[in-house]
């Protein structure tokens, strides 16, 4: 899934009958923050979520992976999704919802197995999977894990 931040913000500004500058002043953020998005600059996911919240834009992340085998901590799941999407953005890559879902599921499994969310390890895993770098062995583990996941698209069923 590719998020068209520009289109989402422009649509909401039109609904509110506001310019980017007016909206920024109303919600008390940097005047250029919204203007730059409308002009095509892709914001970090944190910045987009902050602006979306202040403009009353509903944002829903669709994760096609079935997490029923895990006891889910929604806060942890949300943080993992944000870290994964931010890292993809930092690497100038655009993930599909399927890619994010598989990587988040893999990270969640590792955290469940380890019993702790080791932040440096999580960062290394995310980076190695995104860049297909198997120097730490995580990319191979991710590929094996991905192959065990149930298909999530109708064409694969």
Give a quick precis of the structure.
With 157 residues, the protein is mainly α. It is 61% helix and 0% strand.
Structural key phrases:
157 residues, 61% helix, 2 domains
Account of the 3D structure:
It is a single chain. The protein has helices spanning 5-16, 20-27, 31-38, 45-54, 74-90, 97-114, 119-130, 138-148. By secondary structure, the protein is mostly helical. It folds into 2 domains: 5-54; 74-156, no CATH class. Helix 2 (20-27) runs antiparallel to helix 3, helix 5 (74-90) crosses helix 6 and helix 5 (74-90) crosses helix 7 (119-130). The chain is elongated and about 50 Å long. Residues 152-157 have low confidence and may be disordered.
What is the element layout, followed by pairings?
Elements: H1 5-16, H2 20-27, H3 31-38, H4 45-54, H5 74-90, H6 97-114, H7 119-130, H8 138-148
Helix and strand pattern: HHHHHHHH
Rg estimate, integer Å = 18 Å
Summarize model confidence as the mean pLDDT: 77
Query: Which sheet architecture does the biggest sheet show?
Result: none
Overall tally of structural domains: 2
Total count of helical runs of at least 4 residues: 8
Q: In one word, what is the shape?
A: elongated
Strand element count: 0
What's the helical proportion of residues? Answer: 55-70%
Q: List low-pLDDT spans.
A: 152-157
Strand content: under 5%
Estimated structural class: mainly alpha
**What's the N-to-C terminus distance?**
20 Å
